[in-house]
Each structure stands twice: as structure tokens, then as C-alpha cells.
């Protein structure tokens, strides 16, 4: 028990020390060069604080959704060794069907068109 308590105290104190050092160590001296937007060496053409288009966020969300789909379907090859692999395949087919129907709906509604 003492060893566990000692390890927890060391971990907590080391984390606290590193956090404090991380806040105090960097030297923040903002100047106009650092605060200006970077545009490949050219003078800024406009404000760097313009909002992104909602279509950009839609494409990003769709990418994350289909990336999550890959993560959910990754264990499928190992499902063959379960007692009832058909249940896993039915759920995977249901997920793929639902995502495909959502993609078709977005496509029909014009949500995937980048330029109007």
C-alpha cells in the first residue's frame, strides 16, 4: 500500500511541477510581426479573422463521421471467431446502411456541393 501511495504522490507532484514550469517558462513577447497573419511572405490581403464557410464545416463533419465508421468497423475481421458472428455482421450492415442513406440524402439535398 505504501508503494502505491508513494507512486501516486510522485506522479501528482511531478505533474504539478511540470504544469507550473510550463506556465512560467515561456517568454511571451508579442510584437506586430507575431500578431500579423502569415500568408507565405505576402502582405495580408484582408482580416485573418474571417469566419469559415458552413460548407467547410459540413465536409469536415462528414469526414469525421466516415472516419468514425472505419474505427467502428475495424474489429469485424475478428468477429468471425465469436460464438455468434452473424449478430456482429448484422450490426455492421445496419451501420453501413444508415451511413449510406445519410450520404445519399446529403448528396440529393446538395450539401456536398462546394460551390453554388
From TrEMBL:
Entry's Gene Ontology cellular component terms: mitochondrial membrane; NADH dehydrogenase complex
Pfam families: Oxidored_q4
InterPro entries hit by this protein: NADH_UbQ/plastoQ_OxRdtase_su3 (IPR000440), NDAH_ubi_oxred_su3_sf (IPR038430)
Cell compartments where the protein resides: Mitochondrion membrane
Keyword Transcription: no
Single GO MF descriptor: NADH dehydrogenase (ubiquinone) activity
Range of residues in the leader sequence: none
Record-annotated membrane-spanning stretches: 6-25, 56-76, 88-108
Superkingdom classification of source: Eukaryota
EC category name: translocase
Database matches in PANTHER family: NADH-UBIQUINONE OXIDOREDUCTASE CHAIN 3
Family: Belongs to the complex I subunit 3 family.
Protein's UniProt name: NADH-ubiquinone oxidoreductase chain 3
Organism: Apteronotus albifrons
Lineage: Eukaryota, Metazoa, Chordata, Craniata, Vertebrata
